[in-house]
Design brief:
Layout lengths: L12 E10 L2 E11 L4 E5 L6 H8 L7 E6 L2 E2 L5 H7 E4 L11 H7 L13 H11 L15 H15 L1 H6 L3 E6 L7 H16 L2 E6 L3 H7 L2 E6 L2 E7 H4 L2 H8 L1 E3 L13 E3 L5
This protein binds adenosine-5'-triphosphate (ATP).
The site of adenosine-5'-triphosphate has 11 residues, from helix 1.
Protein name: ABC transporter domain-containing protein
Keywords: ATP-binding, Nucleotide-binding, Translocase, Transport
Pfam families: ABC_tran
Length: 276
């Protein structure tokens, strides 16, 4: 099933014929899909498939060679940077800060796009809510240089949440892009963060997340986009798309256990030379 949508509703993300080159080499080839408001789209694929490149293109962090990216029916590049930042939060795969800013200060950077607008009145509430949501309230004054890898990842998520707090609270369309947001997190915080991503979708966000953990993808994703060597290998509703045969073909592992009918697909991946 295709993730194309005919009539764009406000808040839908539409990517058409996207080609991206890195270092002069195409790494995404004419990728087309839609992500719908109120739903979580999980982007999956092997190392080097182009997931980060895709999210960075949608997040405005890298240039595209060809194709269009529209949000709510308008080109994403058409807005001024501050207006765009108020509705599109992008959490990159890696977050590193060499300076000893506090956790709270880093999360507050997410509010920079609201300076000089009425939304600035909600900065304090936004930062407090984002810190609490990421379980960082007790670390708010700690320099980020003194955090663990997982704690830093939660800071990056909290910054993204603070950025789109206003639209989320108002139930207005916004785009949340999370590139491997749980790669360093313990199981409790993985579920906590992805649960929050689902909650953002419930509040009107269009949520696009990359994950390597196929079980988490199955639990938290409404829709799936599977990339393989820069092209779409499969796309559609999660339960219909993330099948054992797809997993074996694209990820080159066998599925030991899967519970497909309705419930989450619990993926127990074993090497291909070990029959399930
Ligand atoms: N800065 C860069 N310059 C040149 N090529 C790059 C650059 N970054 C990534 N690539 C290449 O682009 C392709 C896609 O990389 P990308 O990071 O998007 O993959 P990915 O699916 O996110 O992989 P992973 O699962 O390992 O994070 C790969 O072949 C990679 O080697």
């Amino acid at each position: 099933m295709s993730l194309e949508v005919g009539n764009l509703q406000t808040g839908n993300l539409q990517v058409r014929g996207l080609t991206v080159e890195r270092n002069g080499r195409p790494v995404l080839h004419e990728v087309s899909f839609a992500a719908q408001a109120g739903r979580v789209l999980i982007v999956m694929g092997p190392n080097g498939a182009g997931k980060t490149t895709l999210l960075a293109a949608i997040g405005g962090a890298i240039k595209t060679a060809q194709g269009g990216i529209e949000f709510g029916g308008a080109p994403l590049t058409g807005l001024r940077p501050a207006a765009m930042a108020a509705q599109r939060a992008y959490m990159a795969q890696h977050f590193d800060c060499p300076f000893a800013y506090s956790v709270e200060d880093i999360v507050a950077l997410g509010r920079l796009c609201h300076v000089g607008t009425p939304r600035a009145a909600r900065d304090k509430a936004a930062i407090a809510a984002a810190l609490a949501g990421a379980d960082l309230a007790s670390l708010a004054r700690r320099p980020v240089t003194m955090l663990s890898g997982g704690e830093r990842q939660r800071v990056a998520f909290a910054k993204a949440v603070a950025q789109i707090f206003d639209r989320s609270q108002a139930g207005e369309p916004h785009l949340v892009i999370l590139d491997e947001p749980v790669s360093s997190l313990d199981p409790e915080h993985q579920h906590r963060l992805l649960g929050q991503a689902r909650q953002l979708a419930k509040q009107g966000a269009t949520v696009v997340v990359t994950l390597h953990d196929l079980t988490l993808a199955s639990i938290y994703g409404d829709d799936a986009l599977v990339l393989d060597r820069g092209r779409i290998a499969a796309q559609g509703v999660m339960a219909e798309t993330l099948t054992p045969s797809l997993i074996e073909r694209v990820f080159k592992v066998r599925v030991g256990t899967a519970i497909p009918d309705g419930g989450p697909c619990i993926v127990h991946a074993v090497p291909q030379d070990q029959a399930a």
